[in-house]
Design goal:
Shape: globular
Distance between the termini: 33 Å
CATH class: Mainly Alpha
Radius of gyration: 16 Å
Largest sheet: 2 strands, antiparallel
Number of domains: 1
CATH superfamily: dinb family like domain
Helix content: 55-70%
Number of strands: 2
Strand content: under 5%
Number of helices: 8
Strand order of the largest sheet: 1-2
């Protein structure tokens, strides 16, 4: 299963840039590789880098990592619900409100990265548990149809996007 196999009707158009940026990559390879790349990039940064804002109103690296954790949990939850044929329409979330209320900057960076590690491992385990049929099931989230497999690629593409931002604007 790779990102290039997804049809555009499997996900909200907002996520198109995340998915297209992945190219022809296997879901589990990109979930593992992107996970490792984020840890290597962030783990040894000094506190002043982790709490730096490149412009007013922009998130810090700590806030970005917390945002990745929150978003991954939400996307995995959606995937779980849809894989179980849950037809309940799921609401969106305000990412800025979540970051503002996350306390990310006050967190210990090692604890934050440990939480990211646990969250990613749980996501990988969840997606490995899905059958081929479950991966093609869909539901409605934030007003758009989303398949289970597309949600996995959204997780990977979203993180890849933010890692690129960290490298370009923070380091």
């Amino acid at each position: 299963m790779n990102a290039a196999e997804l049809n555009e009707n499997e996900y909200n158009p907002f996520y198109r840039r995340y998915i297209l940026a992945l190219g022809e990559v296997d879901l589990f390879e990109i979930l593992n590789a992107s996970f490792e790349e984020l840890l290597v990039t962030v783990k040894d940064l000094p506190e002043e880098k982790l709490t730096f804002r490149y412009d007013e109103g922009k998130w810090t690296i700590k806030e970005l990592v917390q945002h990745l954790i929150d978003t991954e949990r939400i996307m995995s939850y959606r995937a779980l619900r849809f894989s179980r044929n849950d037809a309940t329409e799921l609401q969106g979330f305000d990412e800025n409100w979540y970051v503002e209320n996350s306390n990310g900057n006050e967190r210990n960076s090692n604890d934050l990265l440990e939480e990211f590690t646990c969250t990613r491992r749980a996501s990988i385990s969840l997606f490995k548990s899905f059958t081929d049929e479950m991966l093609t099931l869909s539901g409605i989230a934030n007003g758009s149809d989303m398949t289970v497999r597309a949600l996995g690629f959204v997780i990977a593409g979203h993180q890849t996007h933010h890692l690129r931002v960290i490298k370009e604007r923070y380091l």
